[in-house]
Specification:
The chain has no helices and eleven strands. It has strands at about 5, 10-15, 20-25, 35-40, 45-50, 55-60, 65-70, 75-80, 90-95, 100, 105-110. Strands 2, 4, 5, 6, 9, 10 and 11 form a seven-stranded mixed beta sheet that branches.
């Protein structure tokens, strides 16, 4: 059974940075796509960034140039570096494995 544990969320002022990390277990990891999604109150869960096993990247237009996804196949982790944060980035951020499995989420709050 795949388990995903996120960390690194918190409260930050607009313009600041945060780094989220997701540790996976119960998976081969390296052969699967990994990603980050977010859900703001009252809204649907949306894609933030994904990275395939081959390194292909996909970012939401709203985060391009500000967020960077990376993965370590040895440590079985996927990170999301978030810079130039905006209040509209406030959401619960979820780690995703193979477009199927989800972590419990970590709250990111950006104050204006």
């Amino acid at each position: 059974q795949v388990q995903l544990v996120e960390s690194g969320g918190g409260l930050v002022q607009a313009g600041g940075s945060l780094r989220l990390s997701c540790a996976a277990s119960g998976t081969i990891f390296s052969i699967y796509s990994m990603g980050w999604y977010r859900q703001a109150p009252g809204k649907q869960r949306d894609l933030v960034a994904t990275m395939t096993s081959g390194g292909r990247l996909n970012y939401a237009d709203s985060v391009k140039g500000r967020f960077t996804i990376s993965r370590d196949n040895v440590k079985k982790t996927v990170d999301l570096q978030m810079n130039s944060l905006k209040p509209e980035d406030t959401a619960v951020y979820y780690c995703n494995h193979n477009f199927r499995d989800w972590g419990q989420g970590t709250q990111v709050t950006v104050s204006s």
